[in-house]
Amino acid sequence: MTLVLIRPLVTLASLSLLLLAGCSEQLPEPSETLAEASDDSALEHAAKHLDPKYVCPMHPQIVRDEEGSCPICGMDLVARMIDPNQGKHPKVEISNEVVQSMGVRTDYAKFDTLWKYIRTVGRVEYDETLTAHVHPRADGWMEKLNLRAEGEPVEKGQLLGSLYSPEILAAQVDFLIALDQRDTKTSKRRIEKARNRLRLLGVTEGTISRIQQRARTQNTIPLVAPASGVVTKLNAQEGMYVKPEMEIFTIVDPSRIWVMVDIFEHQIDWLAEGLTAEISVPAYPGRTWEGKVEYIYPDLDPKSRTLRVRLAFDNPNGMLKANMFADVVIYGGPKHNVLVIPQEALIETGERTSVVTALGEGRFQPVDVVTGMRRGGRVEILSGLQEGNEIVTSGQFLIDSESSLQASFSRMGE
Predict the structure, then answer these.
(1) Where is 154: in which H helix or E strand?
(2) Where are the beta strands (DSSP E) in 7-90?
């Protein structure tokens, strides 16, 4: 009779078969008694039976259960023992010689003051509230035009040209008829009605007064500038037929300009209307203009994930030109008593943000942190560190990689 033994598990059923068969083979002794196993914790018991892993020093992705060489570079695999007590980011021990050769530098987390300010680039535009658009109020012909090209400066009330319109001429006739009938009971109402019609057709008060004084019509009516500024659009020429929907002149006052900037989403909390802003332009090196945040637009650009902000600046000399690019700084004031560290100490992988803390005697450990404001090479720490913690500012990436590798081995062992 053939008997197959399954080791190291020995059940009562297999023991019975051995006795019945008269087998003289001795049962194997257990490697440890139940009493001994109960004395060890679960982690200590697991640690006794964990085999080391072998990894390539140059290619950490090469991991084997036994000794050998790396199939990529040929280097001997190095044994790595797994510590079952390791956490998410295991500690790393490095000798003083290695620390010095790596050029490891450290600094301390401390409370300080950070100034909130935003640096960005903006574009100069005309202030739309100081823009005047001139349309004819009736169909007609441009009999005369005093402007020759765009860009010409004009003053408020300046004569820009003259317009001949049959509709306006008919309104003048009605106005004169109403004046001739001023002795009737309804004359005052008719005169005012005819006068208002001329106003609605764009006839100036001076022209209406001259028509009344001379008691005769004018074939053409003057077109005057409604505001001072620069003509940025000129869509009419002498003899051209124009309609009310045509914008024949656009006049912009450049004494005050806007600067449009785009602010990143993470900086929105620093913004508020009325904050001080400063700009400089490449055309005038060393010169700055001071203004303020005038308006914050309500929606973000869905593609760039930025918020549009409008800044206002006085431009009395007209030095700032539309479509200029400007370097912009928006000042948000100080933020006191914040825990800060050098920004160079951060390790940002896209999935986590961490720093490497120095524990003393060549021991280091990565710690996940939550960051806040960043200014002047320093970053605010919202959680993860305390004042006085020593953190690594140079060489932390190698230490973090070693800790991540040990954590990977620990997960493999589990």
Answers:
(1) strand 153-154
(2) 53-55, 63-64, 78-80
> Total structural domains in the chain?
3
Tokens standing for 347?
């390790």
Q: Could you tell me the CATH number of the domain that includes residue 176?
A: 2.40.50.100
Rounded to whole angstroms, what are the CA distances from 363 to 99, 108, 391? Answer: 10, 16, 12
Residues 96 and 216 in one domain: no
Q: How far is CA 319 from the centre of its chain?
A: 30
**Is the same domain home to 99 and 189?**
no
Q: What averages of pLDDT result for each successive group of 10 residues across the chain (414 residues)?
A: 37 35 42 45 48 70 82 82 58 82 90 89 94 94 92 92 95 91 75 93 92 92 93 92 94 95 88 94 94 95 94 94 95 88 91 90 90 87 93 87 68 52
Q: What is the DSSP letter of 142?
A: E
Q: pLDDT at position 291, please?
A: 96
By residue range, what is the domain housing residue 384? 92-127+254-414
Decide if 34 is inside a domain. Answer: no
> In which element (H, E) is residue 347 found?
strand 347-348
